[in-house]
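Tutorial, part two.
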Amino acid sequence: MTSELSLTGYPPQDLLFRKDFLKKVEIFKQKIINLTKNKKTIFALSIPLSKINEITNALLLVQSGRIIYTVQKQILPNYGVFDEKRYFSSTQITTKYFNYRNKKIQFLICEDMWTNDFTKKKKEKLDLIVVINASPFEIGKFKLRQSHASKRAKYFKSSLVYVNLVGSQDDLIFDGGSFVMDKLGKIVIQEKFFEESETHFILDSIAKKKPIKKINKFENLYRALMLGLKNYMTKNGFRFAHLGLSGGIDSALTLAILADTIDSENIHSFYLPSKFSSNDSKKDAEALSNNVGIKTSEISIEILRNTILKHLNPIFKKYKEDVTEENIQSRLRGLILMALSNKLNSLLVTTGNKSELAVGYSTLYGDMCGGYSLLKDVYKTDVFELCRWRNKNTLSYFKVKRNNIIPEEILTKEPSAELKYNQKDSDLLPPYEILDKILSYLIDENRDVKFIIKKGFIKDDVMKIWKMIKNSEFKRYQSAIGPKVSKMSLSLDRRFPITNKFDL
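Running the prediction step on this input gives:
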């Protein structure tokens, strides 16, 4: 058994509108069919199946060089990152179940399992349910999968096999975690997360349920970010990666993940101070670099900053100093880091988090510059938690084999952009513990302001944050791609217009 659309990758998107792409799918389908000739094994192949005037998301069972059973995906998701109704048709099939050796097997494709409509129909005896999936990772998603699968298994009193894709495509991460359930809806075989695996089992001879390792939210989140980064680099031909290291917590976590994921000789780190950068930040950046075995080069932007301000002075002298001068520093850093990206043929990994991106606390063509935004869907409070988790844990697949890699000073100092003297994030924003809760309601839950205020938050804070989100929509349209890890990322999940007069 293979996972959903394992041949093409998920989702193929508008490649499905190309005849040459569909022709190539057909060529490889036939190659796979030919491989099964003179073999008793049944191979389950999931592909986009092209017929006259329609394409279906299909699963083919192939044996001895011929297709013995076909099932199409019936429920086409069209929410969040999913857009299947744009591409696929959902056709009714005459044979609902696959009968094999007097066993009745139901094959479902991903979303087909998530509906509860099966309880409204006539209950039939099933011997096995097989679900193939390309289910993207989200924090807490596995519990939902387990819950829906368990309902099916218990209702039909049938064992269930859940096969999930491993890997990533663009912003989507597929975390694997395939499993087998017994008739009581309990997991009896659990495959690893974020790792490709192959397992064999005899369904009627599965031993007593073994203890399943408890899922740690931050371990899985850390590993998801690692997998997204690694696959994005590998599949897009990047050997090298680099970042701007500020001495702050976001760039610290970004460097830690980079260092755990790819070889140290392929990572470049740059410290780009101005006169506003503190000595403590420099020390913290150096300590972190030493801890993860990465050399950090220093390139001062102070002379460039002064030169630009000098040339702009004939125009600027009529105006008061404001955020414009601060943004010049950020854009100088973006300019230098992008130049290094070109010269070194290296992926610039930008370091902004979801909290900052949501409220526009970032500079377009400045700190937002980059080819991959690793923390784009990670709130600031989770950035802190991930750093604390990493300091306490060293896992076998980490390149850096030690704990406490992120200096405590980075974790305890108050966040600051350091674009002017004594600047603090709290000058403009509520404490991140409050900000992130409000953002979670506004973005992840898509709640209205009245609901949030009733939860006990200050009205002025909620209104201010909503306006900051609305006013910075244009920035997010131009932000770098980054891995989706929450149920509502700031890209395909959430589609708000830039130009709209709706207000609260």
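The longest strand covers residues 54-63. In part three we will examine how such features are distributed along the chain.
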